[in-house]
Amino acid sequence: MKLRNLPYVFLSSTHFGKEILESLISHNCPPKAIFSIPEYFSISYSKTKVKNCNYYDFQEISQKYSIPLYIIESGVAPLTSFYDVIHSMQLDFMLVAGWYYKIPKSIYSLCKFGSFGFHNSLLPKYAGGAPLVWAIINGETQAGVSLFRMEEGMDSGAIILQESFSIESEDTIAEVLKKATSKAKEMSLKLFRQDFEIVFKEQESPQEYYPQRTPNDGEIDLKWDALSIYNFIRAQSSPYPGAFIKTIDGKKLIIDKAHIENFCGGGGILLSRPKIFCVLRAA
Fold it and tell me: Whole-prediction pTM value?
């Protein structure tokens, strides 16, 4: 199966998706339409609207390239209200990158080949929410991007393409996102290459699911060791809400950067216990 010149729609709400889409358009692979989500949106795991920290407004791309843009407003059943619109486009597939709602089977079944999505992990590892954040928190030295065919199970579909990259000990979430975006752009261009034939590879082992994260999940436990705190901080630094401690007056003290130094005891002897230095961010 080859995708070059086949009709598709693009689903995204993030800078990650923006970079992929602009790359595809520049290589003469524009979608028939774009679907996106507002910066503040409703989702099942939160009683209030959540903010998309990596939000991108696709209005500019829509206007610049005359591509129709459809917004999934809060309170509207995701995508199902656009059933007739999507059906009328006679699509071969959907391409998803930076999306926060489950795509119903009734919708992706409207496309001849279904829906293909990017996930920022080496599936089946780190399926579920916030994969890059969890990878840094856990001290991983390698992560990656998977392009897979969507099914009813979360992140469980067959793999189309998969690329890995290193996570250096100094990398923050911003640097890791850049690496993931670069890999995803390369993969998307390969997907649309005239000579690229898609071969689906089923995921052989069970998914390792991780939950979504909220800003309140960023509280630091000072009983952790220095390395755990350091990883926790860099995993949630800008553009994310940030790791924090609560002060005695109930305020959040957000720590945006940190590094660990060993220190010397008496007589210049290097002790094994590290200490951590932090840079604060205004809340």
Answer: 0.89
